[in-house]
Amino acid sequence: MIIVLLLPLIFSLLMVIFKNIKLSKLLTLIFALYFFIFALYSLFNTGQQFTPYFEMNALSCYFLLIEAILVLCVTVYQIGYFNDSSKMSIRFNRYLIFYLLFIFSMAGFILTTNFGLMWIFLEASTLSSTFLVDFRSTKGSTIAAWRYVFICTIGVAFAFIGIIMLSKGSAPFGGTLFVSDLIAHAKLINPLYLKLAFAFIILGMGTKMGLAPMHAWLPSAHSEGPSPVSALLSGTLLNVALLGIIQVYRILESANLIIFCQEIFLIFGMLSLLFSASYMLSCTNYKKMLAYSSIENMGIIAIGLSLGPLGYLAIIIHIVGHSCSKGALFLTSGVIEKMYHTKRIEGVKGLVAHSPIVGIVWLLSFLSLIGLPPFPIFFSELLLVIAMIQTGHFIVLGIFLILITLIIYGMGKSVFSMSFGKSTHSITVVKNLRLLMYGQIVLLILMASLAFYLPEPIHQLMSNAVSIL
Prior knowledge:
Blueprint: H1 2-18, H2 21-43, E1 48-51, E2 54-56, H3 58-81, H4 86-111, H5 115-133, H6 139-169, H7 179-184, H8 191-209, H9 217-224, H10 227-254, H11 258-280, H12 286-305, H13 309-340, H14 351-354, H15 356-369, H16 376-390, H17 394-419, H18 433-452, H19 456-468
Antiparallel strand pairs: 1-2
Helix pairs in contact: 1-2, 1-4, 2-3, 2-4, 3-4, 3-10, 3-13, 3-18, 3-19, 4-5, 5-6, 5-10, 6-8, 6-9, 8-10, 9-12, 10-13, 11-12, 11-17, 12-13, 12-17, 13-15, 13-16, 13-18, 13-19, 15-17, 15-18
């Protein structure tokens, strides 16, 4: 386990020393492959604890496996995505250094058992990804990067206050910040400290997760950052922040304060859907459209956390569906931008006619995101509807269905207008097109295949992850 955290640091140091772009690409690809193999190994070896500070349980293994799949797809994609000019190569070498540090920080957050270390890894993820967002160093990307680091740093500061509250509350049994100790002794903690801790942490980590109204960094960072960065931010970083909130939620659940948490989850979830629906009806930028879709899906997950055991199962399914669908959409959006040289929806027409593979993948990725069977989100949203009925949330269900319908309509209108019709703009032939599409195709096949055959280790992992919640 320690190797998976040390390797990106060692490789980053080698990149700094040698400054050789071919070596940097090779090291990044080696790590992505190792990371994926490690995640598969962990699938069969959950429950290992190599140090008191790092542990592999079913929940962390699930999040790590999703991250590893996306990292491998993104790593292959970005080899063909970035220009090979000498000026770009220097910048790309620096990009790969921060890319590995970003992966290191997310993996460290997922694996750690201590809230203090979680906070350090969360801050590290903000600092390293800021350089990725500002890769192009344009006026727009620089503004987006500053907005991102400013808002997320404030969010991390709120999370830090929440962690202090946890430490203060755990003073009667040693002031520990280990998740397992806090869960075991949750009933000994003053409920006021727990409620304050949860409130501050959901504000802080909810900012990183993209919950409304703390989402302001997300649309601009996704729009201005390179597409592979957007895929990782949406498909993995939001999940990492979600995991931090879940860990605190587990403590309050053990202290019988679950209703307090569920009410807050429901409020933030519905607000996120409302903000997303408002934008989708008038969106003009397809990358911002995808960013607001991430806000929507984080809202859906928050609602799932408010609905009890059936909601927990729904969000476990929804996480993989959203991560893979959004990863495929953002990676494909990078190809579209190379073809049409614009991010405006009205500037992209006839995508299917000009490049069938890009157009079809774009459409299928959209259909998987809105929950068309057999993709995972169909099952997760169906379970959420059943959970709302079972728990008597009929008004919430009605609002939920209306907002989801508006979001699907607004997003679908944009996606289909881009996919069909006749373009009046010149289209650039994209180099390395096959290399740029492999990852998306793999993600789509993976999602569709899970509906027909769920391997026993994956089924067991998901069941164990739900039981931890």
